[in-house]
Amino acid sequence: MNKYLRKSALLGIALVSLLASACSNNGKNSTSDSTTVKSSAADSSVKTGLPDSVKPSGQAPEWGKDIRPQMAAVIEQLGSYSDKPIPQLPPVEARKNHTPTDAVMDIMKKYNIPMPPTTVDTIGKEIPVAGGTIHLKIYTPKSTGPYPVIVYYHGGGFVIANINVYNASSQMLAEKMGAVVISVGYRLAPENKFPTAHNDAFAAYQWAVNNASSLHGDARKIALVGESAGGNLAVNTAIMARDKKIQLPVGIVAVYPIAGADMNTESYQKYANAKPLDKPMMMWFSKTYLNNMAEAKDPRINLVAANLKGLPPTTIINAELDPLQTDGANLADKLKAAGVSTDHKVFDGVTHEFFGMGALVPEALEAEKFAISQLQKAFKGK
């Protein structure tokens, strides 16, 4: 793995995936689609090095004794901001907390890890949906199309974060896949309760199907990718496409998806105090998005109880040190039982939100490579 990370060309590709995440402005919502970042000098007390030189200064947390060094450094940096825990904040204030993206960017500055220019173009677009509009951020390669298309849904428990906080994943997918990526700024709770985010996610997919060619995309090759709450939205969108008898996506990649109503599973118990996602946060997300807690059993939230038959090939990626690990495993089992071609992989020693951190965390780079390979197989099938 270290030899792989030292190869400058591949490192550059991994590093660029985090380029525009600084636009998150400590997690605040932003309508800017700019990918310009001003780099700062590294702390002179820190030795300049490659990602494998990044290590935490303290001990591994009690909930994750086997956490990988780079992952531990990110969690340690996140804790250094001393933000008030999200469940103790109203949603508007919670959105201002520092994010794992901020932690990664600060570590990169500290170790003077360079960020090369992006190799994709980005534009923003507002599209109409029931009851309002939503913002899309569209990433387009600078090579010659037509390109496959990926509709991407960010995480944040349906309550916090935005397309810029999760820019790293979208940009990485566009660059490594050579694909048009449409990142969906679905509306958040509590301003927009369940099932608004789910309906917005499907509306964005319909828009992608109808407008792919105008984006130099191949309308026959559209896949869905999502993280956490976005992983839930990706699977739900495919279910809605099946039920409404419109074009199915060619494949789904769901990264640590919210997939169950049970918050007493094995991983919820084992990693109840994990960071950056813990059990109290998941309870807060549910109470904030849902109209009442009985809705947690709705199959759109409780995916393991949904009708999963007829869905396209689905890949589920999980982190070991994550309350949602069991959700992913249970969903994979249910998909297989429904006859869906399913791949499930757990990455050891890393936490929720590790995906997209390929610039620093070796396991994240491996997860990104795995997701890309799965998407390539799905696109080749068409």
Describe this structure in words.
By secondary structure, the chain is an alpha/beta fold. The chain has a domain at 120-380: Rossmann fold. 34% of the residues lie in helices and 17% in strands. It is built from 12 helices and 8 strands. The chain has an 8-stranded mixed β-sheet with strand order 1-2-4-3-5-6-7-8, with helices on both faces. α3 crosses α5 (100-110), α6 (167-177) packs across α12 (362-380) and α7 crosses α8. The two termini are 32 Å apart. Mean pLDDT is 89; it is low at 1-32 and 34-44.
Write the layout of secondary structure elements.
Blueprint: H1 2-6, H2 8-16, H3 69-80, H4 91-94, H5 100-110, E1 120-129, E2 132-141, E3 147-153, H6 167-177, E4 180-185, H7 196-211, E5 217-227, H8 229-243, E6 252-255, H9 266-270, H10 279-289, E7 314-321, H11 325-337, E8 342-351, H12 362-380
Parallel strand pairs: 3-4, 3-5, 5-6, 6-7, 7-8
Antiparallel strand pairs: 1-2, 2-4
Helix pairs in contact: 3-5, 6-12, 7-8
Keywords: Hydrolase, Signal
Region (Disordered): 25-66
Domain Alpha/beta hydrolase fold-3: 150-355
Quaternary state of the chains: single chain
Q: Please name the fourth-level CATH homologous superfamily of the domain at 120-380.
A: Alpha/Beta hydrolase fold, catalytic domain
Q: What's the pLDDT, averaged over the residues?
A: 89
Instruction: Estimate the global geometry from the Cα principal axes.
Output: globular
> What's the architecture of the domain at 120-380, going by CATH?
3-Layer(aba) Sandwich
